[in-house]
Amino acid sequence: MDTIGLLSALPINELVFFINKVVIAGLIIGSIYALGAVGMTLAWGILRFANFAHGDLMTLGAFIAFMLTMAMPGLGAYVGLPTAFVVLPIAMAVTALVTILIDKTFYVPVRKTNPKPITLVIASFGVMLMLQGLIRLFFGTAPRQMYVGSKDIYRIPFAGRDIVITEPQVLLIVFTVVAIVALHLFLTRSRTGKAMRAMSDNADLARISGIGTAHVVRVTWIIAGSLAAAGGTLLAMDVSLKPDLSFNLLLPIVAAIIVGGIGQPYGAIVGGLIVGFTETVAVFNWAILLRPLKPHMPDWLELPANLTFVPTEYKIVVPFVILVAVLIWRPNGIFKGKVL
Amino acid sequence: MTTLIEVKNVSKRFGQVLAVDNCSLKVEQGTITGLIGPNGAGKTTMFNMVAGAFAPTSGTIWLNGKNVTGMPAHELFECGLSRTFQIAQEFSSLTALENLMAVTGSRSEESLFDACFRRAKVVRDELAVRRKAEEILRILRLTHVRNECAGNLSGGQKKLLELGRVMMADPNVVLLDEVAAGVNRTLLNDLASVVESLNRDKGLTFFVIEHDMDLIARLCDPVIVMAAGTVMVQGPMAEIRKNPEVIEAYFGGGTAMGRAS
Prior knowledge:
Chain A has 340 residues and is mainly α. Chain A has 15 helices and two strands. Chain A has a single domain (12-329), classed as ABC transporter involved in vitamin B12 uptake, BtuC (Orthogonal Bundle), CATH 1.10.3470. Chain B folds into two domains: 3-90 and 170-260, P-loop containing nucleotide triphosphate hydrolases (Rossmann fold), CATH 3.40.50.300; 91-152, no CATH class. The longest helix of chain B is centred in the middle third of the chain and has 21 residues, at 119-139.
């Protein structure tokens, strides 16, 4: 290896390993959390309840994309992108429609009775269980592949080693960045976006100031549903598609929302990345990074083979810890959200 | 002169307390009508019924010849009645300019279809709304804080902003709930001159509930005095001040009315 200067002094193997296992992995899972959390936090801020069915909207969106992919598997080859990604806009639109229908059928009748927020949360639990049941009924429980062919794997040479990233991961990161920028422009530039933020700030005032609340609610569900579908599909493309795909995402997503402050879309993005990176850092094997220091260590000090903060099987604990810590020290979240 | 708001034989009972007792009053178009009275006179109850916060126990309320008894506030808004609050309400995380731009009424709602296929129309509408909001900020002398989050404004500036939000909707009548409360003298002067010019130049009607007698004397004609749940007298401030009944009801006699002014 004939690298020069500072790089040659660095433990390249370990550095690249760190980039692959922590930076890229954290970015991937953080983006998924962010996509899920943004939609859920918007709906939470505007409708004042945590829609626990949000995770299963992600799964539903992924299954809709899966069906479309099976229906026209060759479509992607024309564009040079995976088929599931090409049909994603359709899956997003269908999921948005389903989300609005769920609202009309289940949440609107409850909202009309002027309920406590917890009543709506429990209604959303019902919707969540129903969606899970329906998805299992129609698709079974076996994991499925979203990819028609094989996944492209990109190896970026970095000082003699390769940083490895797959095609769905690149698409996920690019999509998340584009979605966040588009959402930002929508919220700050368009009048509906301003009305949404206004309603999230002070719903009563928005109502009596003539802001069309029904219109705002509809747009909120469209954004929440379509981002959920995108997050679910992109996750299923990266790993595989299972009916319990996003039920496991619900807790980290709720943690991300609370970290960022309820009702704060930018907070949800930051929160999603924080939770994602904390998870990967927590299960990362630090022994590997310490190995280059071995020659400089005294003989009596033995490096353990496995040195992680949290064993991988307890990964789900990490969002809990973040949640508890935030609720103790910053109950409003870092972006000062609502106290509900 | 047409009557904009007419309250006919309205009563409001809270449990055993009869807060408003068979009360009638009128707000004529183009006036700044004041509503005053000692504490517990029922003026806030009356005001809240007109604003649609709750329905009267009996009697009817008419707005522009239409029976609006018990109509909720957001529907009254569509009928051209806007209100401000004693403790100013704002969309705290939006900037002052956005606070105004968010409130354009459902009549000019953006549609998904327009957003996708008629960009030119959307951009044109947006520009018109922005220009209107900027103009209102200029009138209110809030241009220097247009990009400041509304939550960071001072109490007085928030009250001005409330007035601005009301102006965005081009209402027929505005209910002002204690504009002077917690506002310093300089800002109060600004507020009063804005109300005066809106009334004079645009013919906007105001219905004002207020404790600050100077402000009432400067702005309002006629002034309605409520006491013990009923309307006691109605007339220009100069006459009200001399009315012995009013002085008796307000301060239990003496020269207190003189001191208040």
